[in-house]
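Anyone up for a design puzzle?
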């Protein structure tokens, strides 16, 4: 969200045009007691460090973020609130999502005349719609869970859930079992499972690894600088991006840590993960390490930033 301001220094009235997704949403006039009139006045305003900004934003202490510019507003832009377009929904409609995915299909790639089509079809086995129903290969990086010395068993009791969510959880684990990603467990550890409604419908299966994460030693993994990743792509004329399918499930758990991943279900089952599940404290760091490890020989033309892989 950004705001454009049309300010006359002699006046304390400020015209505010609120934008969302590039479209004007609302027009207001605000009265400012003593607006800053030059750059030095602005630089003397109270500041907030980015760490405190992120903290306050997460805690709800910041309700709006405004971008103040000296860009002039077109005088012909004068519409009432009723003439402004309605706000776009916060969630992408399912139909729009399906249409967007359709444009990324093999047929769409061929019909568009994209020169990448022939080479992509030659290596179609690395572009599956779903990952193979088997354990992934050991690519040299496994997810490890190192606990703080003296940590006790990490156990949180499973709470009851509605029937439709119980069925969604049972179906999810049956599918993961057939894929070889989970197995029945007798671990002394246990974290509950619950559901979160997806924006496009259906349920997302989530594990409450709170106690396990609190007892986990944070991983210290180097993170690529965004500006260096962008600078490495300067001078290129063709760009593409790779989105990994079920990326976390392509990383094995360290065998000794598998019992720590045990999760319960409302139907009374206890499962443990053989691949890296979502929700673990150091999972993003492990994923970043895996991508960097696999793409190390290709870093000159395939830089990465966590799950984002760019090809130039």
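Challenge accepted. My sequence:
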């Amino acid at each position: 969200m950004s705001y454009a301001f049309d300010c006359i220094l002699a006046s304390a009235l400020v015209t505010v045009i609120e934008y969302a997704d590039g479209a004007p949403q609302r027009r207001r006039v605000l009265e400012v007691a003593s607006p800053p009139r030059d750059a030095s006045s602005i630089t003397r305003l109270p500041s907030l460090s980015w760490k405190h900004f992120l903290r306050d934003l997460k805690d709800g202490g910041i309700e709006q973020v405004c971008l103040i510019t000296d860009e002039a507003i077109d005088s012909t832009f004068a519409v009432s609130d009723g003439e402004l377009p309605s706000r776009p929904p916060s969630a992408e409609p399912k139909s729009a999502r399906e249409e967007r995915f359709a444009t990324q299909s093999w047929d769409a790639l061929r019909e568009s005349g994209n020169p990448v089509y022939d080479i992509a079809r030659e290596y179609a086995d690395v572009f599956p719609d779903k990952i193979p129903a088997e354990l992934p290969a050991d690519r040299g990086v496994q997810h490890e869970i190192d606990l703080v010395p003296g940590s006790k068993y990490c156990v949180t009791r499973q709470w009851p859930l509605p029937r439709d969510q119980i069925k969604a959880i049972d179906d999810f684990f049956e599918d993961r079992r057939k894929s070889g990603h989970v197995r029945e467990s007798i671990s002394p550890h246990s974290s509950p499972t619950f559901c979160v409604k997806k924006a496009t419908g259906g349920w997302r299966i989530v594990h409450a690894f709170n106690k396990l994460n609190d007892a986990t030693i944070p991983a210290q993994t180097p993170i690529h600088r965004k500006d260096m990743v962008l600078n490495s792509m300067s001078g290129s004329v063709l760009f593409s991006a790779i989105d990994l399918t079920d990326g976390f499930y392509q990383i094995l758990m360290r065998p000794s840590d598998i019992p720590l991943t045990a999760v319960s279900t409302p139907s009374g089952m206890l499962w443990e993960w053989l691949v890296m599940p979502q929700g673990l404290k150091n999972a993003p760091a492990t994923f970043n390490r895996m991508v960097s490890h696999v793409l190390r020989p290709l870093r000159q033309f395939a830089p990465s930033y966590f799950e984002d892989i760019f090809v130039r």
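A detail worth pointing out: The two ends are 30 Å apart (CA to CA).
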